């Protein structure tokens, strides 16, 4: 187990460097410059522009800038925002809470909705349950987040006036748990829709495969009750693919959160990333990239371990 954990951790190091380098280079060669956002005075002198560029290290080649940033990162310094002059670590610490609340709530909703439907569809294939769950999975997998968000805002918020359209709390209201629940329902539902599509299909496929296994037929031939077969034997093995698909979906959940947070004005990392990209705020872009990359790596690592616990046939 220890050897497996070390191998997994070491294999993540080159991936981290490749991801951060690609993001830094792409951000740097994109149109626009941080200086345009920082020095908005059209009459500013060329000398002042050159001085500010040298101060920020933007006068050096892109790869030199990247390795300078990497050196500061290895010292534990994420830098300071070009736009707000606030330490990036402080900005991320303030925005990570809302993002975690949203992504965890959406994943929990997806699991609570998709697993029962997938299990029933796999237990009774080609039944009404199977057709309904299949239709829902195709709709969920094919519906873009922004379309679902705009549709729900129009129907639920504007027409029916049931839930608020944006924010984490009311602007001038109390910041209570009740208000948080009211505001998180729509973005959490939107973020869970595409997860539901994949989870239903994987759960159904896993259940169908398990129920056709030799040990299930042997258990039934021995007269073991069907309820015990389903709960003790089939369910545990059918859920193993769910762990795998959750690990694969982590980057897409985070990517979907960027769009969802922007549409619903949710004060998380996604909204911060969009503002940073618009302002060419490289320290913030890279800081959020580092945080997301590390979070995805850790999440996949934990899921690998859980897969071994759920499925004892796996050997590390």
Secondary structure elements and their pairing?
Blueprint: H1 2-29, H2 34-38, H3 46-56, H4 62-74, H5 88-123, H6 128-142, H7 145-159, H8 177-211, H9 214-221, H10 226-238, H11 240-263, H12 269-278, H13 282-310
Helix pairs in contact: 1-13, 5-6, 5-8, 5-11, 5-13, 6-8, 7-8, 7-11, 8-10, 8-11, 11-12, 11-13, 12-13
How would you characterize this protein structure?
The protein is mostly helical. Helices cover 77% and strands 0% of the residues. The protein has helices spanning 2-29, 34-38, 46-56, 62-74, 88-123, 128-142, 145-159, 177-211, 214-221, 226-238, 240-263, 269-278, 282-310. The radius of gyration is 24 Å and the shape is globular. The N and C termini lie close together (6 Å). 29% of the residues are buried. The model has no long low-confidence stretch (mean pLDDT 79).
Structural class: mainly alpha
| Helix and strand sequence | HHHHHHHHHHHHH
The global form is globular
Provide the β-strand percentage band.
under 5%
- Cα-atom radius of gyration: 24 Å
Termini separation: 6 Å
Put simply, the count of helices is 13
Total strands: the figure is 0
**Average of the residue pLDDT scores:** 79
How much helicity do the residues have?
over 70%
Low-confidence parts: none
Largest sheet: none
């Amino acid at each position: 187990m220890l050897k497996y954990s070390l191998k997994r951790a070491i294999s993540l190091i080159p991936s981290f460097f490749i991801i951060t380098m690609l993001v830094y280079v792409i951000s740097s060669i994109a149109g626009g410059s941080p200086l345009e956002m920082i020095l908005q005075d059209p009459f500013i002198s060329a000398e002042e522009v050159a001085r500010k560029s040298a101060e920020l290290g933007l006068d050096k080649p892109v790869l030199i800038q990247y390795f300078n940033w990497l050196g500061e990162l290895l010292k534990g310094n994420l830098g300071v925002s070009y736009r707000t002059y606030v330490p990036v670590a402080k900005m991320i610490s303030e925005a990570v809470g809302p993002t975690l609340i949203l992504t965890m709530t959406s994943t929990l909703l997806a699991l609570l909705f998709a697993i029962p439907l997938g299990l029933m569809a796999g237990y009774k294939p080609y039944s009404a349950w199977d057709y309904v769950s299949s239709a829902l999975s195709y709709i969920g997998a094919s519906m873009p987040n922004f379309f679902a968000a705009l549709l729900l805002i129009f129907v639920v918020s504007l027409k029916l006036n049931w839930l608020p359209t944006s924010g984490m709390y009311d602007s001038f209201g109390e910041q209570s748990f009740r208000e948080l629940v009211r505001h998180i329902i729509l973005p959490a539902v939107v973020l869970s829709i595409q997860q539901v599509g994949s989870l239903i299909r994987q759960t159904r496929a896993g259940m169908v495969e398990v129920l056709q296994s030799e040990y299930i037929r042997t258990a039934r031939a021995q007269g073991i009750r069907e309820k015990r077969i389903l709960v003790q034997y089939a369910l545990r093995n059918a859920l193993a693919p769910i762990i795998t698909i959750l690990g694969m979906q982590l980057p897409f959940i985070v990517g979907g959160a960027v769009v969802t947070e922007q549409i619903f004005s949710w004060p998380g990392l996604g909204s911060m990333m969009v503002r940073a990209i618009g302002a060419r705020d490289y320290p913030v872009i890279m800081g959020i990239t580092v945080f997301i990359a590390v979070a995805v790596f850790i999440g996949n690592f934990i899921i690998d371990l859980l897969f071994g616990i759920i499925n004892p046939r796996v050997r590390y």
